[in-house]
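User: Please predict the structure of the protein below. I'd like the answer in structure-token form so I can feed it into my own downstream comparison script.

Assistant: Understood. Taking the following sequence of 358 residues as input:
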Amino acid sequence: MAAIEIRGLQHRYTEAEAVLDGIDLTLSDGEAHAVLGGSGAGKTTLLNLLAGLLQPRAGTIRFDGRDVTRLGGAGRNVAQVFQFPVLYPSLCVAGNIGFALGNRGWKKPAVRRRVAEVAGLLEIAPLLGRRPRSLSLYEKQLVAIARALARPDVAVVLLDEPLTAVEPATKWRLRRALKTIQQQLRLTMVYVTHDQSEALTFADRITMLHRGAALQTGTPSELYEAPSHTEVARFIGSPGMNLVESEVRGGQLCVGQKAIAPTGLSDGPCVTGFRPEWATIETGVAAVREGIPIAVDTVRPLGTEDGNPVGLVTASLDGKPVHVRQRLEKLQAGSAYLHLDPERLVTYRNEQLATHAG
């Protein structure tokens, strides 16, 4: 496997707006890396540039220090797994997995041994004699992954939304299989997805793309706890981070007329961010002293915690929705007040992270 270094990568399909604009990214050898973003963010373009299917307008790509920017896919020794598995219908599963090995001059006994080894790792040995038409979509994708792993000298495995077409009931099984094989073999994997749950549970680190720019690269906890851009804050989480208009006055962060935390920011407007579980909404006289007035709109029960009901509360703050995940016994009849954890707040100016209280 290879360490990957990307510097100043740019690409555009026409003279219109750039699809990728100056991407800098470093992946360590054996890293599971997810590229996350919505439609049109540039995820698949980045993957195709790594695969050698596209040539960048500017920038460099290095595998283990070797400049591969102008090399095609064969010169880079990459393997790809696509959203819809593409298998040879005339070949059995074993033939599909070992096809590339035979083309590279491997002897048949060596091919059989390698196919059996990879099939055993992915627990698909019983499928080796079957044809693709007899497989489920989940099984076909496992075979496609096995084919990508068959060559032991592959530098990087590129996965383009590999779970999108798989039945929802089996997605978690395929994700677990991918993660297990990546950890066992210490594979360098780049996993492109629009699904944050896939990225957060699979990757060692995540790069968030938005309109051709890499907004943040970090661990799942870093993107969740301290998103560096308001777009990352909105995208990560279900629901995403609450972002409310606020102001710094005399060293105090204020929401409306309420001072909620000290800050080192200079005076002026900003945006305060907090996750739904970093706040509570309480009712009654005791809640007034430290709380921000808020109007509860809906309550959606989610289950119980220590025998107490918990749910997602949606409320209105200055006419904008705020989501809070909390125990529901704190909600009674009467005026409602929002309480924020001052140790976990994040603040933004010009959409960029300004401070992180935690």
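That's the full token string. The domain at 4-235 is CATH 3.40.50.300 (Rossmann fold).
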